[in-house]
UniProtKB/TrEMBL annotation:
Residues 486-544 are annotated as: Disordered. The keyword Signal applies. Keywords: Signal. InterPro entries: GH, Glyco_hydro_18_chit_AS. Residues 501-544 have a biased composition (Low complexity). This is Chitinase. GO terms for biological process: carbohydrate metabolic process. The keyword Kinase does not apply. It comes from the Eukaryota. SUPFAM superfamilies: (Trans)glycosidases.
Length: 588
């Protein structure tokens, strides 16, 4: 080949890489629907579709136990929480979907989210209590007297899935079923078993809403499985019905938001404090995704499929429990065609990485890589690089406002909310922000109203600010990127942080030399465990001093400062209102 031809060939290749597949350049936001404000939010977005700074909206969340009979035109059995009578909002949602699409916005429907992924008893027992310490262990101490035995349904198994202030009951939670009476699921089971490259596959179809389930590890404790078994009584496969619903609503795609930390920790292999393997959860997640892939091919071939993925999901080294570290790495390694369907080609909705709800508290080894910075931008770059290294094209995620993790009532100074400098660092340092774009949680979540500035939390940025910059990076010439997320009734957005389940979950990690863990997070939780006693250092600010007596609630002056008193380490923060006080944090 002559030199000119070589140059031309190279130029062609570069051009091909620089132009992402049509529809893959996305500025996306999740929209949490609820009966009170959901309809107004959806209407406002639809009426302003041409000028909002996102070109994709994720309606969230439908239940993983949903039922939808094609042609029935009702959301009655989807648990989407839009309206509770008539057609449960079907016609309304369908009308707004068409209006959004006419304005150039794709609409996806998401299944899952934190509350539709949490099994309170098992998550408490094997993700948190098991390790005897960790960033969420204080809940077991405070409400359960320090042991899993003290956590029960009356104290919502010690409030691990949601904080006590949310007043949750078992009805608020649902887990992903294995609908093994369906021929579609049986087909998926054979494919997964045939491709299994880890331990032998063990299915658990008996974990179905309302059933009594005996703890498979202690073989004694019996709990009721969260969720409904309606899909069993009508003999349907919820993952297939999800695609039927998408077709009848005219949606552009469906989204799988799977975050079953309880499943990984209950069915892990390994012993003691690890490291463990989460092969069974790789099989379960991939089976659900494959069931959706097969349904799309059979029922609605134009439909795209995306997935939410954990920040540590593509990180392949040892797993110490508590997060879903490596889940997407192994799913891609063993079943590459499933990842490929979601990330390349006509059906690619993308792999959306929940790179938020991270912590910089290294007492729990939360910082993934001590050689680079532990602040939000540095951590996000680290996690996105693990996806790139694993060969999984992925889209970066942002969270607006107060993070759910670490718990703001317990460790507020190690939260790392999204600031302008972090956003700038991510947009400049994560290469795919210009090709596949980004997404955020959530369109109407307010910025954090806690005191900001040098003595408070970092000054985080609002949803419109984030959306405009993310949009401008991936769609540089689009006029919509200068638009705003429309306020409701001319007033400011109404969703409060505490009402929101989040989609995320983040991660903790491990220090390279020390066998420890950290876990990931999610709405309010995380867990982690460490086997090594580590000296606490205040990373945010303030000297470590000593004091005496119970200091809880007494005034302090330096945000992030710590003090050791009677073996309790107190941290100075805005626990409530605008006054800095000492709060119990950990032992010392
Ligand atoms: C639940 O646990 C709490 C705290 O450990 C205990 O006081 C309460 O009696 C338990 N309730 C039931 C119904 O077992
Ligand atoms: C939980 O219940 C308390 C007491 O009834 C109430 O003040 C609070 O607003 C409730 N929280 C939520 C999130 O509904
Ligand atoms: C399971 O599927 C078979 C065959 O479709 C059907 O006859 C049976 O009623 C189903 N069982 C339940 C519990 O739905
Ligand atoms: C904060 O402290 C001031 C002065 O001590 C007091 O008057 C005020 O009530 C406190 N505010 C809150 C929210 O606790």
């Amino acid at each position: 080949m002559n030199p000119l031809a070589v140059l031309l060939a190279v130029a062609t290749t570069v051009a091909a890489l620089a132009t992402p597949p049509v529809g893959n350049a996305v500025s996306a936001g999740y929209l949490l629907l609820n009966p009170t404000t959901g309809p107004a939010k959806l209407k406002a977005l639809a009426e302003n579709a041409a000028t909002i700074p996102v070109n994709r909206i994720y309606l969230s969340f439908v239940a993983p136990t949903m039922v939808y009979v094609p042609g029935s035109n009702t959301l009655q059995y989807s648990d989407i929480g839009y309206s509770s009578s008539g057609d449960y909002g079907f016609a309304d949602v369908k009308k707004y979907v068409a209006q959004l699409q006419a304005g150039g916005v794709e609409v996806f429907l998401s299944m899952g989210g934190w509350n539709y992924n949490c099994y309170p008893y098992l998550y408490m027992k094997y993700s948190i209590a098991y390790f005897g310490k960790g960033p969420n262990y204080w809940k077991i101490t405070q409400y359960g007297g320090g042991s899993a035995a003290g956590c029960n349904e009356s104290n919502m198994w010690c409030y691990v899935c949601e904080p006590q202030s949310e007043n949750t009951t078992l009805k608020d939670f649902i887990v992903f079923p294995e609908p093994d009476n369906a021929s579609t699921w049986k087909a998926v089971q054979s494919t997964i078993a045939a491709g299994a490259k880890g331990e032998a596959v063990k299915w658990h179809p008996e974990i179905v809403g309302g059933a009594k389930f005996t703890d498979p590890v202690d073989k004694q404790t019996v709990t009721t499985v969260p969720g409904s078994n309606y899909f069993v009584t009508v003999n349907r496969d919820p993952y297939t019905d999800f695609v039927y619903l998408a077709k009848d609503l005219g949606l552009d795609g469906v989204d799988l938001d799977y975050e079953e930390m309880w499943h990984a920790d209950t069915f892990r292999s390994g012993s003691g404090t690890g490291p463990f393997k989460l092969d069974q959860t790789v099989y379960k997640y991939t089976a659900i995704a494959l069931d959706m892939v097969n349904a799309i091919k059979a029922i609605y071939p134009e439909c795209k499929l995306s997935t939410a993925a954990g920040a540590a999901g593509a990180w392949s080294n040892n797993w110490w429990g508590g997060n879903l570290k490596g889940l997407w790495y192994y799913s891609n390694l063993w079943y590459p065609e499933v990842t490929k369907f979601m990330s390349a080609g006509a059906n690619a909705g993308g792999i959306n990485v929940m790179t938020y709800d991270l912590s910089n508290n290294n007492v729990y080894f939360e910082c993934p890589d001590t050689t680079s910075n532990c602040e939000l931008g540095g951590q996000v770059k680290f996690y996105m690089n693990t996806y790139a290294t694993a060969g999984i094209p992925a889209r970066v995620g942002y969270e607006i406002g107060q993070p759910a993790y670490p718990d703001p009532s317990n460790d507020p100074t190690h939260q790392i909310p999204l600031t302008q400098s972090a956003l700038t660092e991510i947009l400049n340092g994560v290469p795919n922000t210009g090709s596949v774009g980004g997404f955020f949680w959530e369109l109407y979540k307010p910025k954090n109203s806690a005191p900001t500035g040098p003595s408070g939390q970092p000054n985080n940025i609002d949803a419109t600010t984030v959306a405009q910059q993310m949009c401008a990076k991936v769609l540089p010439n689009a006029a919509r990127c200068k638009g705003v997320i429309p306020p409701l009734d001319g007033s400011s957005p109404v969703t409060t942080a505490s009402q929101l389940p989040t989609t995320s979950s983040a991660v903790p990690t491990t220090s390279s030399a020390v066998p420890t863990t950290s876990a990931v997070k999610s709405s309010t939780t995380s867990s982690k465990k460490t086997t090594t006693k580590t000296t606490t250092k205040a990373t945010t600010a303030g000297p470590v001093t000593t004091g005496s007596g119970d200091l809880s609630g007494t005034a302090c002056t330096v945000f992030g400062g710590t003090v050791c008193s009677n073996k309790v380490l107190y941290q100075c923060a805005y626990y409530s209102g605008n006054n800095l006080t000492w709060g119990k944090w950990t032992t010392c």
